[in-house]
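// run 5 | inverse folding | seed 20
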C-alpha cells in the first residue's frame, strides 16, 4: 500500500553522474556528540526547572499556580511520549516481523522482545522517551565511528533517522510546553503585580495565598524558580529551532550542511528576539489583560492564514497540513520559522517588520499607562531599553548569520543571470537525488536527448532571439562513465525544502531503505521521481 521502491544494481543502469562524483562518506565527529549531549542538557534543564517551579508553588501554598504549571508540564509531555512510543511500536514491530521466527531459538527471542517492550513502556511511562532517543543517537553515532568500514554507513543512516525523530519531537514539545509555560509565568508575574522576575531578582509573595505554605512563607524572598523556568524555556525554544534547522539540512543531500558556528549564532538570534517579544508581552499584559488575550488570538489567526496561503507541503494529507500550519502559527507568535521553499528574505523581512511594530506598540502603550506607584520612571525606561536592545541584538545576530555563516554563502552576494527571462538552476550537488533521477533504468530503450530535443548543448543553452545563420553544431559531449553504486529508486516526487524527505517521515520507506542499504555491498544512492517529465515518468512507472 505504500510507494514503490526499487533497488537497481549497477548492471541494470544508474543515475547520470560526473566522473568520480561519488559523494564523500559523512562521518560522525566528536563535536556532533557534544552537540547532542548539550541538547540533552537543555532538555533536562527545561523540564527540571518547570518541575522545581511547580514544587515551589506547592510548598508556598499557591495551589492554583501549582496546578496550572504542572498541567503545562505533563499534558505536552504525555502527547510527545505517546507519539514517540507509537513510532517505536511501529519500528520494533516491523523489524520483528521482518526478522522471521519459528525456529528453536524463538523462545529466547520472544523473551528478549518482551523485555524490550517492558523497558520501553517503563521509559515512556516515566516521561523519558526523549532522553532515551538522545542516548540512542549518541550510541549510533559512536558506533558509526568505531565499527568496520562496511557497517559505518548503516549506523550513520540509523543515527540520522534517530536525529530526525528527536528533532521533530523536541520541536513539538518546545512549542507545546515551553512557549505556553512562558506565557503562563508571564501571567503569574502580572497577577503578582511585579516584574522583578523578568529582571532576575527575588520576589516577595503578596495577595491571597500568602502564608498558606507554612510559617515564614509570607514576606520572604524566594530563590528565582520563575526566572530560571522562564530562562530555560527561552533557551529551549531558541535551541530547538536552530537544532531542527541543522538536522534538516544535514539530512538532505541537495542542501549544504549548517556549521556549528552558524547554529550557535542562530540560537543567539532567536534567543534575543524571543526575549524581547516575551518582555513586551509581559509589560502590555500588566496593564491590559483582556486586550492581551485578544491580541494573541488575532496574531495567531493572521499568521496561520498567511502560512496556509503559502501552500506548504510538509504532511501527506490536507487536514494534517492544516493542523501543522496551526502549530506553526503558534511558533509565529514568538519567532520566525521558515516553512516554504525559495528565498525567504522577503517573507522574513515582512514578519520582522510586523514584529517590530507590535513590540513597539505594546511597549509604548505600557509606558503611557503603567502604574507609577509600582514602577518608577527610571525602571520603566530601563525596561523599554531592554526590549529595544534585545530585539536589536537578535536582528544583529540574524545579519551575522546570513552575511557570514549561511550554508549557501552570503545572502547578499551578487548572482549573475545567464539568460534573459530565464535563470539557470544551480548545478546539482554530486550524489544528490535531484540530479540522479534524470535517468531511467538502462534496461528500458529510450531516445537520446539529441534525437528528441536537438543537441544537448543547444537544448541547455540560451538561444538568441534573432538568428539568421545556423550555428555550427557543438562537439558531442563525452558520456560520463556510469557509477558502480546501486540505486534505490522511490516512486514519489521529492518534497521541496524545507520539508523533510519522504524516507524521513514515512517509516515504511525508512524500514525498506535500511534493509536494502544493509544488504548492499556499497552505499546506494536514493533517487526520487522527476515530476516534470511526463514521458520519463511513464517509462519509470512502467519499469517499477
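// decoded
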Amino acid at each position: 500500500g505504500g510507494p514503490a521502491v526499487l533497488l537497481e544494481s549497477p548492471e541494470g543502469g544508474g543515475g547520470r553522474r560526473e566522473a568520480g562524483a561519488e559523494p564523500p562518506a559523512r562521518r560522525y565527529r566528536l563535536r556532533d556528540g557534544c552537540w547532542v549531549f548539550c541538547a540533552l542538557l537543555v532538555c533536562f534543564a527545561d523540564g527540571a526547572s518547570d518541575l522545581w517551579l511547580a514544587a515551589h508553588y506547592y510548598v508556598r501554598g499557591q495551589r492554583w499556580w501549582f496546578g496550572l504549571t504542572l498541567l503545562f508540564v505533563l499534558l505536552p509531555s504525555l502527547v510527545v511520549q505517546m507519539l514517540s512510543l507509537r513510532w517505536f511500536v511501529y519500528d520494533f514491530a516491523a523489524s520483528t516481523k521482518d526478522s522471521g521466527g519459528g525456529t528453536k531459538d524463538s523462545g529466547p527471542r520472544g523473551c528478549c522482545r518482551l523485555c524490550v517492550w517492558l523497558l520501553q513502556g517503563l521509559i515512556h511511562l516515566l516521561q523519558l522517551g526523549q532522553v532515551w532517543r538522545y542516548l540512542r543517537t549518541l550510541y549510533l553515532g559512536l558506533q558509526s565511528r568505531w565499527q568496520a568500514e562496511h557497517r559505518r554507513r548503516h549506523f550513520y543512516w540509523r543515527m540520522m533517522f534517530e536525529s530526525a525523530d528527536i528533532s521533530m519531537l523536541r520541536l513539538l514539545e518546545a512549542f507545546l510546553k515551553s512557549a505556553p509555560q512562558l506565557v503562563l509565568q508571564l501571567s503569574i508575574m502580572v497577577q503578582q503585580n511585579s516584574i522583578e522576575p523578568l529582571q532576575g531578582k527575588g520576589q516577595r509573595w503578596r495577595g491571597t495565598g500568602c502564608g498558606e505554605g507554612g510559617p515564614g512563607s509570607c514576606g520572604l524572598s524566594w530563590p528565582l524558580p520563575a526566572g530560571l523556568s522562564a530562562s530555560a524555556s527561552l533557551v529551549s525554544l531558541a535551541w530547538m529551532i536552530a537544532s531542527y534547522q541543522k538536522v534538516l539540512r544535514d539530512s538532505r543531500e541537495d542542501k549544504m550542511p549548517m556549521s556549528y558556528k552558524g547554529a550557535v549564532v542562530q540560537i543567539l538570534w532567536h534567543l534575543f528576539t524571543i526575549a524581547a517579544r516575551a518582555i513586551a508581552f509581559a509589560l502590555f499584559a500588566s496593564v491590559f489583560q483582556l486586550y492581551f488575550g485578544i491580541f494573541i488570538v488575532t496574531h495567531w489567526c493572521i499568521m496561520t492564514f498567511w502560512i496556509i496561503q503559502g501552500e506548504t507541503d510538509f504532511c501527506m494529507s490536507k487536514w494534517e497540513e492544516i493542523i501543522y500550519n496551526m502549530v506553526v502559527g503558534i511558533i509565529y507568535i514568538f519567532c520566525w520559522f521558515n516553512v516554504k521553499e525559495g528565498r525567504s528574505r522577503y517573507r522574513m523581512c515582512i514578519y520582522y517588520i510586523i514584529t517590530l511594530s507590535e513590540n513597539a506598540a505594546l511597549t509604548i502603550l505600557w509606558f503611557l499607562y503603567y502604574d507609577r506607584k509600582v514602577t518608577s520612571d527610571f525602571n520603566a525606561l530601563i525596561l523599554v531599553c531592554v526590549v529595544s536592545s534585545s530585539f536589536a541584538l537578535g536582528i544583529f545576530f540574524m545579519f551575522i548569520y546570513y552575511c557570514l555563516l549561511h550554508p549557501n554563502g552570503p545572502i547578499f552576494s551578487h548572482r549573475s543571470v545567464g539568460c534573459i527571462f530565464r535563470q539557470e538552476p544551480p548545478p546539482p550537488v554530486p550524489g544528490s537525488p535531484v540530479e540522479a533521477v534524470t535517468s531511467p533504468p538502462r534496461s528500458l530503450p529510450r531516445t537520446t536527448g539529441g534525437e528528441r530535443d536537438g543537441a544537448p548543448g543547444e537544448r541547455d543553452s540560451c538561444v538568441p532571439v534573432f538568428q539568421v545563420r545556423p550555428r555550427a553544431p557543438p562537439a558531442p559531449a563525452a558520456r560520463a562513465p556510469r557509477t558502480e553504486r546501486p540505486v534505490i529508486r522511490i516512486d514519489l516526487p521529492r518534497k521541496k525544502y524545507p520539508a523533510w524527505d519522504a524516507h524521513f517521515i514515512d517509516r515504511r520507506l525508512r524500514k525498506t531503505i535500511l534493509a536494502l542499504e544493509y544488504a548492499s555491498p556499497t552505499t546506494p544512492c536514493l533517487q526520487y521521481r522527476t515530476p516534470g517529465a511526463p514521458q520519463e515518468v511513464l517509462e519509470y512507472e512502467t519499469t517499477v
